[in-house]
Amino acid sequence: MQSRWNDTEAQQFIDAAEAQGQPAALGLRVYSSRLIGQEPDLVLHGGGNTSVKIPDAEGGAIIHVKGSGWDLGDIEAPGLPAMWLAPLLKTRDVAHMSDEDMVAYLRRYLLDQDAPNPSIEALLHAYMPHAFVDHTHATAILALADQQDMETVVAEIYGGRVGFVPYVMPGYSLSHACKDALARDPSVEGLWLEQHGLFTFAETAQASYELMIAFVTMAEDYLAERGIQVPGPEVTDRDAPKGLAETLRGALATRRDLGAEPAMDFRTGPSIRSYLSRGNLAELSRRGTATPDHVIRIKPFGMIVEEGADLAQVDAALDAYAEEYAAYFNRNAPKASEPKVMLDTTPRVVLVPGLGIFGLGANDQAARIAGDLFEQTARIVNAAEDYKRFAPISEADLFDMEYWSLEQAKLQK
Fold first, then answer.
1. Collapsing DSSP states into helix, strand and coil, what is residue 273?
2. What angle do the packed helices 205-224 and 24-37 form, to 10 degrees?
3. How far apart, in whole angstroms, are the C-alpha atoms of residue 79 and residue 70?
4. Are the C-beta atoms of residues 126 and 88 closer than 8 Å to each other?
5. Helix (H, G, I), strand (E, B) or coil at 133
6. Is 171 exposed, middle or buried (0-12, 13-18, 19+ CB in 10 A)?
7. pLDDT tens for each residue of 356-401
8. In this structure, what are the phi and psi dihedrals at residue 356, rounded to the nearest 5 degrees?
9. Rounded to two decimals, what is the model's pTM?
């Protein structure tokens, strides 16, 4: 992976920030956030998060963290809401806080109460003492992070420059796990989150960004040395087979989960076809998502349909999917700490062996996002399986992420 940092472009963001009365550091934070967000092999569709800490006139500091609903690829200063840093640091000694209490606490210390909610990982960013912190779900990182027992491999790849954090649910617990990892070795320049992604941090925007590029490249090189290539996005055909597309759309429309006119995004390419040709596809496609937050967009597994399927066969596949999804819910919901409301039972990705995939959604954007995420998933899983075994988070952990309490609160209202 190549660094796209350009000093001339960086200065333009500094100038634009200062012209609006903003600190130069915030302009640089916007610039390097966009560099990350515009690289699909680092993050996709709202994934990842970034922050910057800026001293204030009273000797304290404020922290800007990516806000909910913003995409790093086109983020602007309002998408990085500011909070007072000192109160956030007081939570380092608080062992537990619910998601709802954490969100309320973060909002209490916003400088602008009309700002969006800061990222669920805002406290993690606050606990890192560095000025700039970056977090991604890079393709090559996930090919290795979604493996069992990788701590020694991380040490081999990075020579102690990156700390290892076993999987923890994103949010308050993860913030504390990363704080503890950094306390064990304050010299590290990044944190490897098992089955999740990568953090880097430094005192300048350029240094943190280029550490991210360097560490992702080291993962790519490690795989390449073992004969495993991780290609970039490579969609070669978006022309959906008309018969199957019409049949699928008709079957979905009668169920109404995606509305009367469900949107579909068909795509294929070498990595997608390679993934679909794997002999264990049925089992492999049900292991889970490549990184936890993808489950909110594409559900825990896709649906397989043969190219020549007729309406009766597609309906039967949708019925079987709904039954399987309900069973997944019923296995995991009783273990939750509070009652859960089951989401709809319609797939967001349809896999057509020998052909390609359909991303599904209530609108074109949602369908395209599902397609993008699964296209990346195919590349990640191919590399992970070629290395050893694709092993994402467990079904129970995946359920906890999909049925995260803050999302459930919206449904229960």
1. helix
2. 20
3. 6
4. yes
5. strand
6. buried
7. 999 999 999 999 999 999 999 999 999 999 999 999 999 999 999 9
8. 170, -160
9. 0.95
